[in-house]
């Protein structure tokens, strides 16, 4: 099994809400909070590792980004991926999900005999969830989205459980195929000490547009499909009345009383 | 593709009835069609769908296109992507809307790619400004709200967040034509096979319909804790919700109880958040609750900033007496 996992570097979605700041319609990256691998992408790496453990194969983690994005590829390597590739070029900067899918597709076509391409369900920044689907179109491969469990059957058939709002569907697809992986696949493993050492030692090739030949009119900030009109923070703050009391029972009584007065119980 | 000012919604039906999100699509579609001086058309795919077509007109469609094909009787991403794409090419709308549903979020990216436009996913509001579709959506896990327009106004495609938009009142005096259109689906284009569907419906009141929600997070600590929450919810006539943490930890059986960015959006009269820190990804799914109550042992927890009433305590100490007190009040 030759598996490619697409990983993106994002602002840490688990950082405290108060650290989230905007300026001039842009998100300011808060100091002291490192960028992280997109959580669903770590889960996609996890899914790939589970397949590899059972069936063998090679996992390549690939990212479109800057030099700094090496870190997320290293993270994937430290978890157990075998190879990494970084796609960096001035022409790539500012690419939206559609353009990113195109860049990834051009790169993946350069990799030999890929059986399975995994993406995260969505990137924890703009949450579009369209890189995977468009990548499948570009590569002319079948797609299953929102995978929560995958299992390789005989005859190169992949059995995929796909999340739906109140349960799941089971799909079968023959490889090669593209999947998007949802968080329900379970927590990703943490890197091991050995993994981290291997990841640091590993040479990670950097590919530029010369290596993958995209049509530059379709990528970068100028090709963006959407124009941002405004970015703002939602008003959610409420004035919180802390309900007290001498004993837990008294606190409970006071709270129940207030709920009654509010007419909700 | 000949473009006209049509707003085309891709409706969905279940057992001959259009789904709730289809009504919401028709509701917002009507406003957009007004803004474009165009008409509102509905596309319905499947087999045995004529009744749904008629219902779509009652809910606001000016006309309906039906695509009936045995290959479409059951949802399949490949055949539905092909059918919707071809239908759009024949109809030539300037705006295409889908629900951000099991089907919509699956096919929208591919349909948009085939039609050559940029899909904007999971919009919470849509509007028209000089022919452009103005799309509002939540980004950065609910930390921010982005308003965007498509650069290309020829064809714009968006999915809408379920329950974010308002349907029209049904009106059976509305009239409209229902027309069948044909699409061509090749068998080889169907590369994925749906083998089965498993529903994991939670017993009792559905989260989306519950007037009271008792939600537990990472602070609950174990499955027994959730049993206590179930008891509380039952007494209040409500439902139990969670953050992603209890699902990841295996304290709750299904992901369908998760509220937030990757789960459900709820608007109950009373939301009681217990052992929940208040991450934006969670709050974005419950911030429109009428009364928000937080029980958390950490007085600095962000959840208190978005709550009306708060108790700073270990829930294991206050919840048992709270259940008793509520029971007593409800008996009076
Ligand atoms: C892309 C993405 C999507 C996500 N989508 C969602 C989503 O849809 N919904 C969602 O909920 N999360 C979502 N998350 C996760 C989210 O970011 C937070 O990690 C999660 O909501 C935290 O859950 P929590 O507050 O229950 O748990 P924790 O962070 O573990 O917080 C536990 C809280 O309980 C308190 N506590 C501990 N013990 C007790 C006790 N005995 N009594 C009282 N209080 C106690 C602690 O003080 C703490 O505040 C998403 C994350 C990502 C990256
Ligand atoms: N810059 C990138 N480099 C590599 N993979 C990416 C990049 N952007 C998005 N992806 C992949 O596509 C998924 C969905 O992204 P999006 O469509 O932007 O929400 C992510 O979870 C990643 O797997």
Annotate the secondary structure layout:
The complex is a heterodimer of chains A (265) and B (332).
Chain A: E1 2-6, E2 9-10, E3 21-23, E4 26-28, E5 36-37, H1 39-55, E6 58-64, H2 70-79, E7 83-87, H3 97-108, E8 116-120, H4 131-139, E9 143-152, E10 157-164, E11 167-174, E12 177-181, H5 193-201, E13 206-207, H6 209-212, E14 226-232, E15 241-242, H7 248-261
Helix pairs in contact in A: 2-5, 3-4
Chain B: E1 7-10, E2 13-14, E3 17-18, H1 20-36, E4 40-46, H2 50-58, E5 63-68, H3 77-91, E6 95-99, H4 104-115, E7 119-129, E8 132-139, E9 144-150, E10 156-160, E11 177-180, E12 192-199, E13 212-216, H5 223-236, E14 239-242, H6 244-249, E15 270-274, H7 280-283, E16 291-296, E17 309-312, H8 315-331
Parallel strand pairs in B: 1-4, 1-6, 4-5, 5-11, 6-10, 7-10, 13-14, 13-15, 15-16, 16-17
Antiparallel strand pairs in B: 2-3, 7-8, 8-9
The complex binds flavin-adenine dinucleotide and adenosine monophosphate.
Total individual domains of chain A: 2
- Assigned CATH architecture of the largest domain in chain B: 3-Layer(aba) Sandwich
How many helices of chain B?
8
Sheet-strand content of chain B, in percent, reads 25-35%
User: Could you name the CATH topology of the largest domain in chain A?
Assistant: Rossmann fold
How far is the N terminus from the C terminus of chain A?
57 Å
Number of H/I helices of chain A? 7
Per CATH, which architecture of the largest domain in chain A?
Answer: 3-Layer(aba) Sandwich
Helix content of chain B: 25-40%
Q: Roughly how many Å apart are the termini of chain B?
A: 66 Å
Give a count of the beta strands of chain B, DSSP E runs of length 2 or more. Answer: 17
Order of helices and strands of chain A: EEEEEHEHEHEHEEEEHEHEEH
* Assembly state of the chains shown: heterodimer
Question: Remind me, CATH topology of the largest domain in chain B?
Answer: Rossmann fold
């Amino acid at each position: 099994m030759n598996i490619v996992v697409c990983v993106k570097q994002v602002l840490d979605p688990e950082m405290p809400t108060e650290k989230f700041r905007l300026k001039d319609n842009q998100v300011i990256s808060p100091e002291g909070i490192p960028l992280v691998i997109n959580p669903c992408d770590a889960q996609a790496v996890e899914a790939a590792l589970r397949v590899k453990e059972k069936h063998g194969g090679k996992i390549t983690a690939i990212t479109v980004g800057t030099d700094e994005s090496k870190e997320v590829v290293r993270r994937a390597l430290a978890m157990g991926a075998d190879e990494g590739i970084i796609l960096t070029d001035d022409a790539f900067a500012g690419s939206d999900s559609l353009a990113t899918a195109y860049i990834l597709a051009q790169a993946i076509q350069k990799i030999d005999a890929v059986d399975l391409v995994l993406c995260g369900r969505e990137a924890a920044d703009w949450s579009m969830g369209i890189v995977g689907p468009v990548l499948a179109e570009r590569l002319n491969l079948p797609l299953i989205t929102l995978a929560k469990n995958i299992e390789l059957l005989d005859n190169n058939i992949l059995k995929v459980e796909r999340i739906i709002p109140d349960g799941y569907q089971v799909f079968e697809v023959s490889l090669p195929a593209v999947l998007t992986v949802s968080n329900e696949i379970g927590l990703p493993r943490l890197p091991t000490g050995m993994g981290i050492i291997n990841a640091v030692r590993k040479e990670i090739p950097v590919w530029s547009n010369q290596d993958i030949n995209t049509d530059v009119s379709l990528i970068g900030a100028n090709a963006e499909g959407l124009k941002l009109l405004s970015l703002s923070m939602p008003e959610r703050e409420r004035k919180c009345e802390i309900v007290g009391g001498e004993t837990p029972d008294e606190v409970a009584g006071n709270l129940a009383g207030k709920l009654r007065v509010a007419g909700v119980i | 593709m000949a473009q006209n000012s049509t707003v085309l919604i891709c409706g969905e039906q279940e057992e001959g009835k259009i789904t709730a999100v289809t009504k919401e699509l028709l509701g917002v579609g009507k406003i957009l069609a007004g803004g474009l001086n165009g008409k509102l058309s509905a596309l319905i795919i499947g087999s045995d769908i004529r009744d749904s077509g008629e219902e779509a007109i009652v809910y606001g469609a000016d006309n309906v296109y039906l695509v009936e094909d045995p290959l479409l009787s059951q949802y399949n991403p490949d055949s539905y992507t092909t059918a919707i794409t071809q239908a759009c090419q024949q109809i030539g709308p300037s705006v295409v809307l889908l629900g951000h549903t099991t089907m919509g979020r699956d096919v929208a990216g591919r349909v948009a790619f085939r039609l050559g436009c940029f899909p904007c996913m999971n919009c919470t509001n849509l509007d028209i400004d000089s022919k452009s579709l103005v799309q509002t959506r939540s980004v950065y896990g609910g930390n921010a709200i982005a308003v965007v327009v498509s650069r290309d106004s020829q064809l714009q495609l968006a999915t809408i967040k379920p329950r974010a938009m308002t349907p029209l009142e049904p009106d059976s005096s509305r009239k409209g034509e229902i027309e069948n259109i044909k699409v061509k689906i090749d068998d080889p284009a169907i590369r994925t096979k749906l083998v089965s569907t498993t529903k994991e419906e939670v017993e009792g009141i559905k989260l989306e319909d519950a007037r009271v929600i008792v939600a537990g997070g990472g602070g609950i600590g174990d499955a027994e804790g959730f049993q206590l929450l179930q008891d509380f919810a039952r007494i209040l006539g409500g439902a139990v919700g969670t953050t992603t943490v209890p699902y990841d930890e295996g304290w709750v059986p299904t992901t369908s109880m998760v509220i937030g960015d990757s789960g459900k959006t709820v608007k109950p009269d009373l939301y009681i958040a217990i052992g929940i820190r208040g991450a934006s990804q969670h709050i974005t799914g419950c911030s429109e609750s009428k009364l928000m109550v937080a029980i958390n042992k950490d007085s600095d927890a962000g959840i208190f900033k978005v709550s009306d009433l708060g108790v700073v305590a270990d829930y294991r100490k206050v919840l048992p007496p709270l259940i008793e007190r509520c029971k007593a009040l409800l008996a009076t």
